[in-house]
TrEMBL record:
Pfam families: SBP_bac_1 (PF01547). InterPro entries: Bact_solute-bd_prot1 (IPR050490), SBP (IPR006059). It comes from the Bacteria. It comes from Bifidobacterium moukalabense DSM 27321. This is Sugars ABC transporter substrate-binding protein.
Length: 526
């Protein structure tokens, strides 16, 4: 029998493995079913004459005709059923886990709209859909560094007329991140002011009061004491988002663009903030104070952070929920403080954070805007995301007494855990949000810039890792020990001279690539 069944997210008509899409017009479905019936008749060896067993033939014909009629009736019923759902349907692409509860609240308040959520991350799929001209969502979550790129290329709906009065609702840094040429192309969804997360227990073992670290010099001295007990103060294997954020914190402004985003200045090699952080971080790496071999979020990284051999992180304010989910065993050991800075003055930068935007290709811009308005501007939508672990971008939540006084992090079971030992961690993070300096600009092709970072500046990290492993091998031999890491020497010898870089050389390569890419994409590069 033909019947309706669920197949790859669709209701379909099926009979013995033959699939007919419900999305076809009713007339086309009926035609397909009739054609299918004729083929089945032929397959059964049925003709109108010249065969024995006319009674059998008649029964077979009747059975297949009945199948055909039933299929047509099912198709008709399905079409009628579908037509009864008059809700406007929009598709949202987002990686935020709380989106499910946001959608539930939105649909309850907006029963005329149905939201389909696709859990996606990264930008390859979105770029491919835009290039192909079909399959794009109505609403998309974009990190702040990526939003400008899509706005410049005309992919986002200008929502200035509807959101122009929201400036005081959001923090200055997030609000400036959704604008291009004084026009607004998204609503801030969350934020990621940088903060200093540290394992208090490990620092105490090294004789360091981490809460007193104010300057980069303080941080450097603490790193040396941690190294003495066999611990790295942090790990960094070449993360573009981290490096960008640290340049920003150091006062760097290596990128700038005209209001329309078409004229771009790139000056990494001469920018004072870039040079300041690069020199400091190179010293940390050269002295073996930073683990350059473990990539953030890798299994090895999680293990090292969990067992205390990596003692701290510079990260965005979204980190608490991730520490809770990935490293539940470290609950109670960690604390949060403001970022150390070159001169000890209270300032920080953003690392992460995202907005919701409506794509220009959407055929339902009104319903789509209503959704981002609910998720980013209405209290219920914001609360659903904050309860799910997001760090807010609106001033009301950041100053809310209940939010500021929170001392627990919700785990995967819904249990409140005092992950930071009873510390009111949101109070620290909210202060960090106030300390974010303004004026830093992302490139209008920042998505490419970050992917290119690993193949340019990343070479310096790889070279540093090889040098460190060789030094460790030599130290073991000098101490009378044995090691099976003899391949390290060969790896050093076989490394091409162009890959034997310090961070400064990697930054120069990165700048060269960015200028070349920007010019090829039609930007005027200075």
């Amino acid at each position: 029998m033909l019947r309706l069944q669920h197949f790859k997210g669709r209701n379909v008509l099926a009979e013995r493995g033959h699939i007919f899409s419900k999305s076809l017009p009713q007339r086309d479905r009926a035609s397909i079913i009739l054609t299918y019936t004729r083929k089945r008749i032929a397959h059964e060896g049925i003709t109108t004459h010249g065969m024995k067993g006319a009674g059998v033939r008649l029964k077979l014909v009747k059975r297949l005709v009945a199948v055909c009629c039933a299929g047509i009736m099912a198709a008709s019923a399905a079409a009628c059923g579908a037509s009864q759902d008059t809700r406007t349907e929009i598709t949202v692409w987002s990686w935020e886990p709380s989106m499910k509860s946001v959608i539930a609240g939105f649909e309850k308040e907006n029963p005329d709209i149905h939201v389909i959520w696709k859990n996606t991350s990264g930008y390859d799929k979105l770029n491919n859909a835009i290039q192909d001209g079909y399959g794009t969502p109505d609403v998309v979550q974009l990190e702040y560094y990526a939003l400008r790129q899509y706005a410049v290329s005309g992919q986002l709906v200008d929502i200035t007329d509807r959101a122009d009065s929201y400036q005081d609702f959001f923090t200055p840094g997030t609000w400036s991140s959704v604008q291009l040429n004084d026009r607004i192309y998204g609503l801030p969804m969350d934020s990621g002011p940088m903060a200093f997360f540290y394992n208090e227990d490990v620092f105490e073992q090294a004789g360091v009061d981490a809460s007193g670290i104010r300057t980069w010099d303080d941080y450097y001295e603490a790193a040396k004491k941690l190294k003495a007990i066999g611990v790295y103060i942090t790990a960094d294997s070449g993360d573009a988002s981290f490096y960008d954020a640290m340049i920003w914190l150091a006062g760097g402004r290596p990128f700038s663009a005209s209001n329309d985003g078409k004229n771009v200045s790139i000056n990494l090699t001469d920018d004072s903030g870039t040079r300041k952080f690069t020199e400091f971080w190179q010293k940390m790496i050269d002295e073996g104070l930073v683990n350059t071999s473990l990539s953030t979020w890798s299994d090895g990284w999680k293990e090292a952070v969990g067992n205390g051999t990596i003692a701290s992180l510079f990260s965005g304010a979204w980190m608490p929920s991730l520490l809770m989910s990935d490293l539940p065993g470290a609950a109670g050991l960690w604390r949060v403080a403001q970022m150390p800075t070159p001169d000890g003055k209270a300032t920080t930068s953003e690392n992460g954070g995202s907005a919701l935007a409506v794509l220009q290709r959407s055929r339902k811009p009104e319903a789509s805007y209503r959704f981002i308005e609910y998720a980013c501007h209405e209290a219920d939508g914001i609360k659903a995301r904050v309860d799910g672990g997001a760090f807010p971008a609106d001033n009301d939540t950041l100053s809310d007494a209940e939010f500021l006084g929170k001392t627990t992090v919700t785990d995967d079971r819904g249990i409140e855990v005092p992950y930071f030992g009873g510390q009111e961690y949101n109070r620290v993070l909210s202060q960090a949000a106030e300390n974010v300096s303004t004026g830093y600009q992302y490139l209008p092709f920042e998505v490419y810039a970050r992917s290119d970072f690993r193949s340019t500046v990343g070479k310096a990290y790889k070279w540093a890792t090889l040098l460190r492993r060789e030094q460790d091998r030599l130290n073991i031999i000098a101490a009378g020990g044995e090691t099976d890491a003899s391949d390290i020497g060969d790896a050093l010898k076989n490394t091409d001279s162009s890959d034997r870089l310090k961070l400064k050389g990697g930054i120069a390569l990165w700048q060269r690539d960015l200028k070349e890419y920007g010019a090829n994409q039609g930007f005027t590069i200075q």
